[in-house]
Amino acid sequence: MEIWDVYDKDLKKAGFDIARGEKIPTGYYHLACDVVVRHSDGTYLVMQRDYEKDVYPGFYEVSAGGSALKGEDKYDCVKRELKEETGIVAEEFTEIGFELNDDRQYICYDFLCVVDCDKDSIVFQKGETVSYKWQNKDELIELKKTGKIVPSFTGRMSKYFEVLNVGKKFKVTVDRKLGSRHPKHKEIIYPINYGYIEGLIGKDGEFQDAYILDADVPLDEYEGLLIGVIIRLYDEETKWIIANRRDYTDQEINEAIEFQEKFFHSVLVR
After folding, report:
1. Helix, strand or coil for residue 75?
2. pLDDT of 132-147, one tens digit each?
3. Alpha-carbon distance 264 to 26, whole Å?
């Protein structure tokens, strides 16, 4: 029998636990995690659910995950679930998402894990998965269009799917030029050009925002490659990094956007 710690809405342990299947008191939650596995060659691990599952039989999951056992934190949970469901042993995980779900009463942390394992070494969890495949970005986008990925995953991970556009070219309309002040927070002066991609709607319902790295003069518009996505973990928005150089280091990108992202819990995913 699985025993879970119970958490309050402030993400703190409530001081009592429950067994899996027991009703969680209103206003409390259990801890869970999911992890996207990306191979060093750029492909993603896709697992197919057992056809005997009561929920979404035969559907695909672009993740491994589950509920944390009593005493586990989110990192203990994700490491154990990844090993149990795929056989992959890993230590480094990048947090890329978070959801507090009142209806299903869970707190779920989403992670990315980059591996260099033998791609034929994946194992199945009896009663849970029946097959697997490694898919590139375009194949994963097509799979998403079929509607055969478990819906709760695509909902929570919608921000991560933006990363699959890395390497594509986009045109940015600049509305906050290098040297200008933030329209609301006048103390912020833009050290780089910043704008939006017209026609592309972000999670916040507005045009997708973008930082431009390649220019050292104020611009009206710019066309360049998407080289990374800034995911704000506790915010609906994402910010795209546009440039025509693809050799910027993570440190260079983070330093260029630190003037604004320092106010958020943000992570760069490429």
Report:
1. helix
2. 999 999 999 999 999 9
3. 30
